[in-house]
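call fold target=DUF4914 domain-containing protein
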Amino acid sequence: MSVTVPESLLDVSLPPEVRAALEKCPRIIVPATRAELYELCLGPDGGPVFTVEYEVDGRMVPEATVTRCRNGLAVNYPEDYMRRRDPDCMRIADDLPTDKPRYRDVFGTGFDDTRQETLDWLATQELVVVPFKAGGPVHGYPSLAVVPVSSAFFALTLVDLQGWVTFDEVGPFTPRSILYCAPPFRHTHFEGRQVVVHNRSTTLHEVWAYNLYPGPSAKKGVFSVLLDIGEQEGWLTAHASSVRVTTPYENETVIMHEGASGGGKSEMCQEIRREDDGRILVGTNVVRDEPYHILLGETSALAPVTDDMTLCHPSIQKGTRKLVVADAEAGWFVRVDNMTSYGEDPAFERAVIDPDQPLVFLSIDGVADATALPWEHTLDSNGKRCPNPRVVIPRSSVKNVISEPKEVDVRTFGVRMPLCTRENPSYGIMGMMHVIPPSLAWVWRLIAPRGDKNPSIGESKEVKKALKHGGMVAEGVGSYWPFSTGTKVAAANLLLRQLVENDRTRYVLTPNQHIGAYKVGFSAEWLTREYLARRGGGRIMPEQLTPARCSLFGYRPKEIKLDGQQIRPTLLQPEYQSQVGLEAYDAGCAILTGFFKAELEQFLTDDLDPLGRRIIETVLADGTIDDYVALTPLYV
């Protein structure tokens, strides 16, 4: 049985074998509206609960359930493993340069046969085909998604993230990327694992998604496409959030926050959390079980610019030697694990409980025809809350969101830090904030260390073991390396060029979770944001800084005052906490320095930028902060 390809697809230039598969399939649906696509998600009966299942070796295997709620769809996966991104799911099918595992090396054969088998299977399915722009509606690249109708929620998630467009709006085009979804291949070909295969050429980037959790494909797979295009064209999509901070005195500062998964990107756009009495809990001394509070009468107003995928496209740069950024997405994939009860984030709760359009909820315990609540998380098989519940929310629904590109004044980098005490030294010795030159900003982004208890992804046994024993794990270049299909050195050179060319941007490190013996959560990040904004573009004079004891931390402020209240000096200098001390601090510094040296060795190839080589050699030689500043001056 064959079907007439919809007229809207006739003006799309497709590979011959892809068009042949579409011509053979029993039915192709091109939704005219988002509402039509939404209805497809609920199956032929329209809900209230639809099971997404596929035949595997003669039996039907459920992959997900889609529950119709009053405010959207609650999508849940029967397997804990499918509720978070597998960090080892990327496979490269082509012969272009890459440092990622190639398909043929992992599976012992080329991808061509599996690719054709996938097209043959898709040719037997009713399909939903939707256009999208990789990188968002304004600056994005025309693309296409081919998804089984029974997995329509996957297509809905994709277009909610990238923005709804129609074929008429896009016009005739040759896709720069195509995303295909074939869920049963996870069982028939890949032993139940999440696998996302990237097949690149200089004109087309194919993403073959063999699982239904959208994190590694509809979300990060599109990120991979943008990184691939950017590597060819000489620009970056940063793994970052950014926010305009307006102080009570109406001074504006734009802060861009980077870091590995769990490094505080989402939190940078969140309000400072207060206690019931209005005080701010800076941290709790874990050894003494002693909380430390401050009072802030009025905090700065926040206007989010980007949430996760931050576009640094050449077309938006202004030549001011400050980086200009725009959002690469029309919707945000918001993790709500830190919401456990009503009233914790009223503005966000209002946006998702009573939305302008029904939303997609993932790993939220939705009840049919009731309201899905962001704090009612699905339980994993161990009886604990799933650590990665998500809501896909249009950025237009986010309070005070900014839609135009913005110049960045300060780039902060967040690191999850473990508890450090005299009895149990660790690398959790970063002070509340550190000012660093571009050379060290580059080094921290090359490593992108990921701390423990990361909620977003499933960790391998080796990673869990390293973190459990106080070690570190590198997420890699710019923290976007997990999504890059290219080479580390090419990414490192591109990142270094970006930092050097935008030399009127300031760079800051800030920890989360712990500062020495203090449990701080994200308060250090929030207070640093407040302090930098009140300094006017993050400006701190050289005489207000002094070298940190560990040279990788650059400088620390001599003091920090907010509304006349001085932050405890021991939060700026953890080595002087009575529960830490110099010996434990130096032991932590040794862990950090040793890890950085080991990780940086791999970049010392002939392809590395000469300035990058000098920076890495400075780390290997235990250089001082003066050595780093000599390579890349500090902007003050």
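return ok
The chain has 19 helices and 31 strands. Residues 272-298+409-631 form a domain with the Phosphoenolpyruvate Carboxykinase; domain 3 fold (CATH 3.90.228).
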